[in-house]
Amino acid sequence: MPDIYRQCVRCVMDTTVKDIHFDSDGICGYCKNYLIRVKSEQISNKVESFDKLITQIKNEGINKEHDCIIGISGGVDSSYVAYLVKNCGLRPLAVHLDNGWNSELAISNIEKILNALNIDLYTHVIDWEEFKDLQKSFISSSINNLELPTDHAINALLLKIANQHNIRFVLNGSNLATEGILPISWMSRSIDYRLLKSIHSKFGTKKLVTFPSLSLRKFAYLLLIKKVKFIPILNYVDFNKEEAIQFLEKRFDWKRYGGKHYESIFTRFFQGYILPVKYQIDKRIAHLSTLIMSGQISREEALNELKNMPYGDEKLMHEDKDYVLKKLSYSEEEFVEIMSQKPVKTNYYRSSDYWFDRLSFLMYKFKDISKKI
């Protein structure tokens, strides 16, 4: 991090992001890149494009029990996707990965949404001992993306279920309006199974027998040969996070969590404690900067939010810490030692970066097809 602290004058990205740069007016490259992404990825003629997408999904789903797959976590994005697709007449199968960290609120929100909308649910309960061993391996690795095992399992599960049911469309809650800014240095590719195996083989002790996973070859096969498509359907509508929350609260008695992806206790502890303390990363600055750039909050509102501690509730932070350490079988001394270890970059371990770089044109091609469907 540079010696002199600077913050973007348009968003709230700052020099805690190591590769940030500013122009002569004090505007950072991240919010500039966001505008480029909007221009290249935003759906034009949203109503027409949305109707065309829904029609194609319905036509391909004739004589099938379900015509699309949706992931459901109980968070605002996935909950609103469930409402959106059901409201336009689709017949989704909701898929949920239970990795052992669901909050009671998440479970309640999932039940409320799916019961009210009469959506079928498939829940995959992960083998806890396997997953515990994998999570502890990642924590010991000192890379900053400790959510990679969960993200990988979710993507693998969605693709496998889609393939099993001969469904080409996986509709997800990814969107430019709330997720358009995120430094690459903060995260690693969740589909990188080679990286996952490399870290687990170094630190793990149990075989991954039932863990949902996909090799890069299988991932490419399902996307490019079987033509399963991940569709960021919220980009097809004017998605406003706060309006969506208020709608879900009123319509379904849905309850908010207080932070992005805080429906998971581990995610809450990871983003609210581990990232800021060990890695000096506050993901709120990226989330808030995106909301500024999409016109959903003001910069002043974001700055006021950042005055609060990442957790927001110190009592909850200590409760979560005790819970996480107990669930992962860490003593306080072991956890302090892990938190004191120097962070390392993902390239310290074996990964598929070489192939990702060379196959990137195929992924962009797939992305373009999804956009112009």
Folded structure, characterized:
The chain has 373 residues and is α/β, with parallel strands linked by helices. It has a domain at 44-259 and 346-371: HUPs (Rossmann fold), CATH 3.40.50. It has helices at residues 29-41, 46-60, 76-87, 104-117, 128-141, 148-164, 176-179, 193-203, 216-225, 241-252, 265-278, 284-293, 299-306, 314-327, 332-340, 353-371; strands spanning 68-71, 92-98, 120-125, 169-172, 229-232. Strands 3-2-1-4-5 form a five-stranded parallel β-sheet, with helices on both faces. Helix 3 runs parallel beside helix 4 (104-117), helix 3 (76-87) packs across helix 10 (241-252) and helix 5 (128-141) packs across helix 8. It is globular and about 60 Å long.
What's the structural blueprint in terms of helices and strands?
Elements (H helix, E strand, L loop, with lengths): L28 H13 L4 H15 L7 E4 L4 H12 L4 E7 L5 H14 L2 E6 L2 H14 L6 H17 L4 E4 L3 H4 L13 H11 L12 H10 L3 E4 L8 H12 L12 H14 L5 H10 L5 H8 L7 H14 L4 H9 L12 H19 L2
Parallel strand pairs: 1-2, 1-4, 2-3, 4-5
Helix pairs in contact: 3-4, 3-10, 5-8, 11-14
Supply database-style keywords:
five-stranded parallel β-sheet, globular, 16 helices, alpha/beta, Rossmann fold, 53% helix
CATH class of one domain: Alpha Beta
Number of helical segments? Answer: 16
- The helix/strand series, from N terminus to C terminus, equals HHEHEHEHHEHHHEHHHHHHH
Kindly report the spatial arrangement of strands forming the biggest sheet. 3-2-1-4-5
The largest sheet is: 5 strands, parallel
| Low-pLDDT runs | 365-373
Kindly identify the CATH topology of one domain. Answer: Rossmann fold
* CATH architecture tag of one domain: 3-Layer(aba) Sandwich
Average pLDDT over all residues: 92
Strand content: 5-15%
Fraction of residues in H or I helices: 40-55%
> Helix/strand/pairing class, anyone?
alpha/beta
